Amino acid sequence: MSKVTWKAGNFLYPLPAVMVSCGTMEKSNIITVAWTGILNTNPAMVYISVRPTRYSYNIIKEQKEFVINLTTKRLAKATDWCGVKTGAKVDKFKEMNLHKENAKFVKCPMIKESPVSIECKVKEIVELGSHHMFIADVLAINSDEKYIDDKGAFDISKCDLIAYSNGHYYELGKKIGRFGFSVQKKQKNKKTLFSQRIFLDCAEFPRINFRSVFNLFVNDDISFAGVKRKTEIENFGFFRVERGFRRLCDFHVGQILALIIYKNAVLFKERD
Question: Cα-flanking dihedrals φ and ψ of residue 19, to 5°?
């Protein structure tokens, strides 16, 4: 397969399409920027490149601060609209029904509808040509709490973030890996060991009241995972039980061979 050579240009895609808010809570504006990215890890630094002819350019240059707001599928129309309209003539917050939020360290407003708002302080302005690059220190990252998981980490998969590529907007696809997955060693399955097991043959229990069994699990604070319908317990359906031992036991009532009792855990074993 051969490659076609084009003249020099920008084709480093995809890129994040972000809405950059600037100004103050009283007088603010939004500019859509795709020429943006990370510059440094420690200290955290980012950049945005803006044409000097844009209305927001002088606002950012004079105030020396801005907020990068990540965009989502729901914000796609507002993202594009704020990129083609000038803030000199319209109030973009009002026209796109966006709401302002106070930032922690800068006077610029954050966009409430954005899942992540990054407060930035301009450190240097580099005049490159058609665009001037605003190099900035990251002062704070503000994340919508509804995207924070139980471990306190930001779950990016729930945001429906969008990207910009050669004049078009795209949804992000599904995750295919994580950093270092190519060299990660496969973990061996650890078997859970139980002691003092008491095996009771099901023949001794020709009729088992499975509603009572269900209640036994609940009363012993043993959680259920994947129970499709409560009626399946009575109808001898298939469901899954998860106990504090982090072990899953799948069973079908018609296949039960033995009832195992271990302290507060009740397990069912399947017939081979």
Answer: -100, 120
Question: Is the Cα torsion angle 120, 125, 128, 129 positive or negative in sign?
Answer: positive
pLDDT tens for the chain, 272 residues: list them: 799 999 999 999 999 999 999 999 999 999 999 999 999 999 999 999 999 999 999 999 999 999 999 999 999 999 999 999 999 999 999 999 999 999 999 999 999 999 999 999 999 999 999 999 999 999 999 999 999 988 888 888 889 999 999 999 999 988 899 899 899 888 766 554 433 333 333 344 444 444 444 444 444 333 333 433 344 333 333 333 333 333 334 444 433 333 444 333 444 433 33
Tokens for 16? Answer: 């994040």
Q: Provide CB contacts within 8 A for 243, sequence distance 6+.
A: 222, 223, 249, 265, 267
User: pTM for the complete prediction?
Assistant: 0.69
Q: How many CB atoms lie within 10 A of CB 61?
A: 15
Torsion sign over Cα 13, 14, 15, 19 = positive
- Nearest Cα residue to 18 out of 129, 112, 116: 116
Q: If residue 3 lies in a helix (H) or strand (E), which one and from where to where? A: none
CA 261 to chain centroid: 41
How far apart are the C-alpha atoms of 251 and 268, rounded to whole Å?
6
Domains and CATH numbers, the chain: 15-171 (2.30.110.10), 198-270 (no CATH)
Nearest alpha carbon to residue 113 among 88, 86, 77: 77
Rounded-to-integer distance, Cα 84 and Cα 34, Å: 13
